[in-house]
Amino acid sequence: MLKEIKWEFVRDIKAPEPDKEPAILRPYLDFYGLVKPPFTITPDPEFLFSSSTYKTVLEDILYGIEAGMGFILLTGEVGTGKTTLCRAILDNLEGKAETVYIINPSLSGMEIIEAILDDLDIDHSPNSSKKVLIDILNRFLLNTTRKRPVVIIIDDAQTMTPGGLENLRLLSNLETDKKKLLQIVLAGQPELQKILSQPELRQLRQRISISCRLGLLSYAELKQYISLRLFVAGDRGHTGFTGGAIKKIYMASHGIPRLINIICDYALMAGYVSNSPVVRKRDAIRGISELRQQAILDKPFLSGMQILYPLKKRLRAELTILLLCLMVLVIVHSNNIYIFSNERNLPVKKNEQAGLADLPLIEPAVSIIPENSGATKRVADAAAVNSEAASTDMENISIKKNYIIQLFSYKTMKEAFRGGTLLRQQGVDAHWNAVHMTTNGTWYRVYQGGFESEKGAKAYMNDAGLKDGIILYAPWTVVIDPKNGDEGIKDISRVLIEKGYDPLIEENVNGETRLILGAYISHERAMRASREIIDLGYDAKPVERL
């Protein structure tokens, strides 16, 4: 523990600048040649680290705001940097939009509307009804002299009351025939997803056009993260963390930025006390130990194994290898265990329902579809394996069909159209969509599905003779808002076909229809496809397939 650290006042310290923390609070600053603390936990956009996740999320949110897509959802674990990202969004929108930033969303519905009006400097009576307040906001939004969009960012949205969320839904109804008048970003912890999944909030959930999730930092990103924060704090190559220290910090923080900041701050203090020019492994261990004593960090997994540390290095290595071997045996054994279904009494492998990896598309393979008179019937029979009749008490539950069979991939749209047409003539309900890949350009994928399970997809492949098909887990599609019901669906479908797309009119278990486009293995690819449709003048958003 860092018991020997003494927080002493130093004579002749210059008065700190107003925007900086007093140097007295971080005695290691002068020692390491830093001008301000590099690892504070305040959400300072100056220290924003653009990890791969941050770049994607920030780009998607700013695009959604620019395109006027309405509701945008941002989720992430505690300490992953949601508030910092919100501040970065506000910085990006400065001068481009009128913004409202609510950091205390645990208000009533009326209070949230009043807070929005106050931030926008809109006059209103404190005793006004909800209808009057919404009418005042609507008139402000419809003001033709106002050029900039209005963006509302709500942080810690998981603490919102049901009334507050319902009032946000009412605000989302403020729109013209062309666009949404309000852009609303909901940022919160993962439990916000569970709150929005409640039946009474389904109308709000359906209005969410973009859903983003902040991930954790990888080990390689951690090195860059530490270097960036030291540089912003004034380091010019004199301060550093050894490889051993970084490994310890990564293991203890699990890649969570807030924990990384706390650990690094304590490690710098330990390095200062030990008069070390760089932060070494032992300094990181001392800082981590202190934080665990204070219950700021969780105890390490299998912490009882620390009894191995006093042993000789060779013995520790041998015991570690033995433990790894035992773990491998347990994993292999568990994969061979069968779990019996309560409904069917049939053996099902434990890993049978697992989603497949994001496989790269391949060039078209030669495949022959049997052309006998029974092909269509066999395809229909196989499809029946994929979809079981819902019981009377589950009629309103949507069944997700997230598996597809990739039949071919072509380099041109013409080949994909011809291949899809040929398959349809032979009884296969094939569709195609463009997939824009980062390094391999655009491919046109011809696929069949969806299916509720990998097992259903395999049964279909066997009965239809699709030997060269590849089963993919493709949970995303693009839904296009027709505005005018079934007639609008037909009109937009015709236009999309003329533009070279292959839309699909899909019917759910309730008999409701929707216009969708494609099946995608990632949210990013579905987002790219939705942008193409938006550019054509239609409202589109990526959603999970039914």
Molecular structure report:
This protein is an alpha/beta fold. The protein folds into 4 domains: 109 residues, Orthogonal Bundle (Helicase, Ruva Protein, domain 3), CATH 1.10.8; 165 residues, P-loop containing nucleotide triphosphate hydrolases (Rossmann fold, 3-Layer(aba) Sandwich); 33 residues, no CATH class; 161 residues, Alpha-Beta Plaits (2-Layer Sandwich), CATH 3.30.70.1070. Helix content is 40%, strand content 17%. The protein contains 18 helices and 15 strands. The strands form 4 sheets. The chain has a 5-stranded parallel sheet with strand order 2-3-4-1-5, sandwiched between helices. The protein has a 4-stranded antiparallel sheet with strand order 9-10-8-11, with helices on both faces. Strands 13-14-12-15 form a 4-stranded antiparallel sheet. The two termini are 54 Å apart.
Key attributes of the depicted protein:
546 residues, alpha/beta, Rossmann fold, five-stranded parallel sheet, four-stranded antiparallel sheet, 18 helices, 40% helix, 17% strand, disordered N terminus
Strand order of the largest sheet: 2-3-4-1-5
Q: Main beta sheet: strand number and arrangement?
A: 5 strands, parallel
The poorly predicted ranges are 1-24, 301-313, 335-397
By CATH, the superfamily of the largest domain comes out as: P-loop containing nucleotide triphosphate hydrolases
Q: What is the C-alpha radius of gyration, as a whole number of Å?
A: 28 Å
N-end to C-end Cα span: 54 Å
**Class by alpha and beta content:** alpha/beta
